[in-house]
Write a structure and sequence with these properties.
By secondary structure, the protein is of the alpha/beta class. It is built from 13 helices and 16 strands. The structure holds adenosine-5'-diphosphate. The site of adenosine-5'-diphosphate has 18 residues, from helix 3, strand 14, strand 16 and helix 11.
Amino acid sequence: MVALDKVLEQLSTVIDPDLKKDIVSMGMIKDLEMNGGDLKFTLELTTPACPFNVEIEDDVRRVIGEIDEIENLDMNVTAKVMEGRSLDEDTGMQTVKNIIGVASGKGGVGKSTVSLNLALALAQSGAKVGLLDADIYGPSIPLMLGMKDGYMEVEDNKLQPATSNGIRVVSFGFFAEQSHQAAIYRGPIISGILKQFLVDTNWSDLDYLIVDLPPGTGDIPLTLAQTIPITGILVVTTPQDVASNVAVKAIGMFEKLNVPIIGVVENMSSFICPDCSSIHHVFGEGGAKNIAEQFNLPFLGEIPLNSGIMSGSDRGRPVMITSPDSAGAVAFRSSAKNIAAQCSILAARLREEQDGAAGNADQP
Ligand code: ADP
C-alpha cells in the first residue's frame, strides 16, 4: 500500500494558478482516506466560481494517476469561499465573508447593471450572494429585478432583505417615500443610512455581498471604505469614461484610502452585431485595459454593448436569468469568475498577514 505521505507529496505538485500555491499547503485537500488501492478525499476549492476549477481537478486526477498503487480515486469536489476581509475588526457583519464595492467615475456607465448581473452570475455558480443597492440618489436595482413595489420587513430590529433569483437584496428604492427625498439628504445622514443597511440587516451567511455604490467619490463610497473592512472595490468603466479621466479619479481616491482595488471591468466595450455576430469597437479599444495597467490593477473583463442587456434591465428580467447563453451573460460569467479569483487572492494574502501577525505576537 502506498504511504499517505507519498500521496500528499504528489498532490502538492498541483499549483492553484490564481493563488500560485500548492493545493496541499492551501488546505484544499480534506478527509483523506486510503484503503488498499482505494483513495478518497475532498478537494475544497476557494470559490465555486473558480475560473480554474476544471483545470485543478484534471491536474489532481493526473498526478494521482501517476501513482501505480492507486486503483480507484473517489474525489469529492466542493468549494468553501475564503474570508476576504478581517472579521475580527468587524463586529456587525461577521457572517459576510467578502464585501465588494462597485464604483464608477460617473453615472450611466452601467455600474448597477454590472453589479446585478455579477451578483446573479456568482449566485448561479453556487455562492451565497447579497446585493446592497447603495446608489441612494438613483436606486435602480428594484426596477432591474422587477421589484418596483418590493419592500423589506423589519424583524427583531433587523431589516430582512428581499429575495430575488437566489440573491438577497436591500435597496433604498424599497423605501419609496424616502428615496424621493434622498437628493436633499446631507453627508452624515447618508452615511448613517448606509451603515444601517450594512450592519442592521439580517444578511445571514453570505460568500459575497456586492455593494452598488453611487458614482463618483462622495459620502457613500467614503463611508463604505472607512466604516467596515471590505474585500475591495471593483471599478466599472466604459471606453468613453476612460477618455474623460473620471475613472482615474475614483481609483485615486480608493488608493489614498488604502482600500484594495479588486480590478477594472469595462462595460459597453464593443458592439456585437445581432445579425452577423461581428464585433465593433464603437468607442475605441483597450482604454480600460490601459487604465488597469497604469495602476497595476487586474483587468477583469469586457461586457459588450448589447440590446438584450439593456432591455433585460428595463423589463426587470436580467440577462443572466433570461438569456444565460447570450454573449452578454457569457461575459458577465467570465468577469464574475475573475472577480471571485481576485477575492480568493486577497483572502489568501490577508490570511498570510494574520498568520504573520499571530506569529510575531507569539515571539518572546
Ligand atoms: P449606472 O448604474 O452606471 O448609472 P445603469 O446600470 O443604470 O448605469 O445603466 C445605464 C443604462 O445603460 C441602462 O439603461 C442600462 O440598461 C444600459 N446598459 C448598461 N450596460 C449595458 C450594456 N452592456 N449594453 C447595453 N445597455 C447597457
